[in-house]
């Protein structure tokens, strides 16, 4: 399981290294060669995954369902990745920093459709929807997918309170006294006598940019230069630091308040990197300046350029050159964020810069309705086309949502999409405000502003000291090819158990027909530290699991814990601000219409329940067949009760003297049993022992607690023939309480045993959209749905085509359609359009 994932990433890196030798300057034995080797090794041992979650909309009413689809992708290549097959979805309360709802979705070929119901227990407010795999937990949760979701209360009175909250938020933002302002020298440091660009970013308490202006003062309070933010609180200025000077920024807010912030200290010696990613179409220009002195004339600086763990360029720069220009061909870079790092002559990283490489390799999704205007309840035939940047058709997997734009306002034109997440946000820490802005061709200055963003945004997926030292953090969370049960066994006082513990797992789950429980048994043991794991399990919905541990001879002084019962930690440092703003009338309309439709859904469910008149049925009581028993009526049976098991150590102790013809000799764990008449020329023949339908040896039977047994059946002679020649000595069938299909595992209180209810894969529901071309009784009811259509699994063919259809509602409104998707090779795309319903 784990080797498959690592090998796929290793193959990708080996291909990059082949192309690397043609574009880099590497001398045998120098630092640059060691750097590449260590960096490759690190990324082979620490591959990455990415997750994106498309939801039908951004605002919901309590009692509604969030329809969603998860996309799982290889972190290095962005290929649709099926390695992890479990996607976790959390609904996080950012104020309480708690997970309110959680579910697990089955991922197939990198796609995980599903839905999340919002029960009444979820309070109205702003939440974060998170998506991640178990393997992604090896990295900071800043790299999990996250989006803001608004949940509104179920009464119209909340409309005013919700608008009041929005008003208060806006007031808090505008009256905040001290914004967080950071000043970030390009490349990392200010150095005496070397002109540098200094980027800055001003954000409020919600992590959103605010416009600022001010000027820079030196130690004598003389003005050096003024500055003004140009985009979402960001901007930059140029400064030539003087020896012995300290610099302070004087900031003016919109209300006239003046605040002071210190700039980073000026270094006596150092390296400055300046990047020009805008002026030249063919190359990225990197200027490296320094004022370092070195006694070694052969000493070198090293520039490494890498994209998502793939080394693109390595360049050695003689330290004798105080100023160097390195031109990096764009064609060698994949699309997305690349990181440029400069190492000094002592092999320490002294400067970093992020750049974005645009190669116009995105998927184009076109939504073409058969008309632009429709009547109420009229059929909409929609053609979906997927092409590459050159207009050639490509096959893609797409999810599509059609919503009433009046009832579901769009957050803003810069909202996140699969394109902005995959190529930008997923490789950055911190909040990226309006990520979609940078991928909208209508924004003519988007590349300049994106370059400004990357001068101020953090990127810390790994630490260079670990890479260079050749030490890699251990992988604690492995790739899940199925559901997992992991935990630990300790003493009741929480001390180590001191050796391996034998474990029995019993999973009770509903069968596919929903008519009863299916029970699966698993046997295993812990490691010496008491850790255990059962992997690659497959079950849907809530499942009851019983785990029993035995150490030595029926030692029950054990405490068993499951990792799945521990809620994950949440490390949100800022409350996300919700950009959605309803008008008061829109909000009241949304709540009223949604409540009406919820009542319609409940009425449809009630109509499906048929009430029968009272009837009297005279018949013999049907006895449900016990799947553990393949025989008819046994020759003898002993029911285990509290009376006959008192003081008995083993099962044989209980049946001794209870069944005619069954002779038990000895006692305790030295007992033996023989059924009279079971012998051949070689002497007596031992009976066959069967535990809940499974043949077992005598020692295993003697280890079972008499308190766990429901009854013991004895088969003699011809009655035992159903088990074949192995039962020539008769059969002793032990039926346990837990093996009974009707036994309630939740009542289990045996020491050394854990019973818990665990969620499996969330059952996948089909989105209900009425078809008005076929008359049905429920069509007489009004139809004012917010989400008119949702289809998470649309696959376009080799010609890049797919067709879907749905019906408009009773509302005279604008229907907003948005499709998001990706090709198998990892090319993401978004398509939007609107239709009118009149």
Automatic annotation (TrEMBL):
<dbReference type="GO" id="GO:0015344">
    <property type="term" value="F:siderophore uptake transmembrane transporter activity"/>
</dbReference>
<feature type="domain" description="TonB-dependent receptor plug">
    <location>
        <begin position="647"/>
        <end position="731"/>
    </location>
</feature>
<comment type="similarity">
    <text>Belongs to the TonB-dependent receptor family.</text>
</comment>
<keyword id="KW-0732">Signal</keyword>
<dbReference type="GO" id="GO:0044718">
    <property type="term" value="P:siderophore transmembrane transport"/>
</dbReference>
<keyword id="KW-0472">Membrane</keyword>
<keyword id="KW-0813">Transport</keyword>
<keyword id="KW-0675">Receptor</keyword>
<dbReference type="Pfam" id="PF07715">
    <property type="entry name" value="Plug"/>
</dbReference>
<protein>
    <submittedName>
        <fullName>TonB-dependent receptor plug domain-containing protein</fullName>
    </submittedName>
</protein>
<dbReference type="InterPro" id="IPR037066">
    <property type="entry name" value="Plug_dom_sf"/>
</dbReference>
<keyword id="KW-0998">Cell outer membrane</keyword>
<dbReference type="InterPro" id="IPR012910">
    <property type="entry name" value="Plug_dom"/>
</dbReference>
<dbReference type="InterPro" id="IPR039426">
    <property type="entry name" value="TonB-dep_rcpt-like"/>
</dbReference>
<keyword id="KW-0812">Transmembrane</keyword>
<dbReference type="GO" id="GO:0009279">
    <property type="term" value="C:cell outer membrane"/>
</dbReference>
<keyword id="KW-1134">Transmembrane beta strand</keyword>
């Amino acid at each position: 399981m784990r080797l498959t994932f690592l090998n796929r990433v290793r193959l990708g890196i080996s291909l990059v290294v082949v192309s690397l030798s043609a574009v880099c300057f590497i001398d045998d034995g120098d630092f640059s060669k060691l750097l590449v080797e260590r960096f490759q090794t690190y990324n082979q041992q620490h591959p990455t995954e990415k997750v994106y979650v498309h939801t039908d909309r951004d605002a919901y009413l309590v009692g509604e369902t969030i329809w969603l689809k998860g996309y799982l992708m290889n972190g290095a290549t962005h290929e649709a990745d099926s390695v992890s097959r479990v996607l976790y979805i959390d609904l996080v309360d950012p104020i309480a920093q708690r997970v309110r709802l959680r579910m697990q979705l089955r991922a197939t070929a990198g796609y995980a459709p599903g839905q999340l119901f919002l029960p009444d227990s979820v309070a109205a407010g702003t939440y974060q929807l998170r998506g991640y795999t178990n393997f992604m937990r090896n990295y900071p949760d800043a790299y999990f997918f996250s989006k803001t979701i608004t949940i509104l209360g179920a009464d119209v009175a909340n409309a005013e309170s919700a608008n009041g909250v929005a008003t208060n938020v806006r007031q808090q933002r505008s009256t905040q006294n001290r914004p967080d302002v950071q000043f970030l020298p390009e490349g990392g440091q200010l150095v005496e006598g070397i002109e540098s660009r200094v980027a800055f970013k001003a954000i409020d308490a919600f992590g959103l940019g605010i416009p600022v202006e001010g000027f820079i003062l030196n130690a004598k309070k003389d003005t050096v230069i003024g500055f003004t933010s140009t985009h979402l609180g960001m901007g930059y200025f140029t400064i030539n630091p003087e020896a012995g000077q300290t610099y302070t920024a004087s900031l003016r807010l919109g209300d006239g308040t003046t605040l002071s912030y210190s700039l980073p200290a000026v270094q006596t010696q150092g390296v400055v990197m300046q990047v020009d990613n805008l002026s030249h179409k063919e190359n990225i220009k990197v200027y490296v300046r320094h004022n370092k002195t070195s006694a070694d004339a052969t000493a070198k600086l090293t520039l490494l350029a890498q994209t998502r763990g793939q080394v693109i360029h390595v360049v050695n720069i003689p330290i004798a050159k105080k100023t160097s220009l390195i031109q990096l061909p764009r064609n060698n870079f994949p699309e997305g964020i690349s990181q440029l790092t400069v190492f000094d002559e002592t092999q320490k990283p002294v400067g970093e810069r992020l750049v974005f490489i645009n190669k116009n390799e995105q998927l184009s999704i076109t939504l073409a309705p058969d008309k632009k205007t429709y009547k109420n309840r009229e059929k909409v035939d929609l053609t979906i086309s997927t092409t590459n940047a050159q207009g050639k058709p490509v096959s893609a997997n797409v999810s599509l949502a059609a919503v009433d734009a009046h009832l579901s306002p769009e957050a803003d034109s810069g909202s996140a999409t699969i394109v902005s997440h995959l190529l930008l946000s997923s490789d950055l820490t911190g909040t990226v405000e309006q990520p979609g802005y940078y991928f909208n061709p209508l924004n003519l200055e988007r590349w300049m502003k994106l370059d400004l963003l990357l001068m101020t945004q953090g990127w810390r997926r790994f630490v260079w000291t670990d890479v260079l030292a050749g030490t890699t953090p251990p992988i604690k969370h492995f790739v899940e090819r199925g559901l997992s049960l992991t935990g630990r066994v300790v003493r009741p006082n929480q001390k180590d158990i001191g050796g391996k513990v034998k474990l029995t797992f019993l999973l009770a789950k509903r069968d596919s027909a929903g008519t009863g429980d299916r029970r699966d048994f698993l046997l295993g043991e812990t490691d010496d530290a008491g850790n255990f794991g059962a992997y690659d399990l497959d079950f849907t919905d809530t499942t009851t699991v019983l785990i029993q541990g035995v150490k030595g001879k029926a030692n029950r002084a054990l405490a068993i814990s499951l990792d799945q019962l521990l809620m994950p930690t949440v490390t949100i440092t800022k409350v996300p601000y919700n950009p959605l703003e309803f008008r008061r009338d829109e909000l009241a309309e949304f709540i009223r219409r949604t409540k009406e439709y919820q009542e319609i859904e409940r009425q449809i469910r009630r109509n499906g329940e048929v009430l029968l008149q009272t009837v009297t049925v005279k018949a013999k009581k049907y006895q449900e067949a016990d799947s553990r028993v393949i025989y008819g009526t046994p020759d003898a049976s002993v029911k285990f009760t509290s009376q006959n098991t008192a003081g008995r150590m083993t099962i044989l102790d209980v049946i001794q003297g209870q069944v005619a013809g069954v002779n038990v000799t000895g006692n305790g764990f030295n007992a033996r049993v023989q059924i009279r008449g079971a012998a051949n020329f070689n002497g007596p023949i031992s009976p066959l022992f069967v535990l809940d339908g499974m043949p077992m040896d005598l020692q295993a039977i003697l280890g079972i607690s008499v308190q766990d047994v429901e009854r013991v059946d004895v088969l003699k002679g011809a009655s035992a023939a159903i088990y074949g020649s192995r039962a020539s000595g008769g059969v002793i069938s032990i039926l346990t309480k837990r093996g009974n299909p009707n036994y309630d595992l939740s009542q289990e209180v045996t020491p050394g045993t854990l019973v818990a209810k665990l969620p499996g894969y969330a059952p996948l529901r089909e989105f209900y959209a009425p078809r008005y071309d076929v008359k049905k009784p429920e069509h007489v009811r009004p139809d004012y749905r917010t989400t008119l259509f949702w289809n998470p699994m649309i696959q376009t063919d080799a010609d890049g085509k797919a067709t879907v259809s749905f019906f408009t509602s009773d509302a005279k409104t604008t229907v907003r359609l948005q499709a998001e998707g990706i090709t198998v090779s990892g090319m993401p795309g978004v398509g939007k359009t609107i239709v009118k319903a009149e």
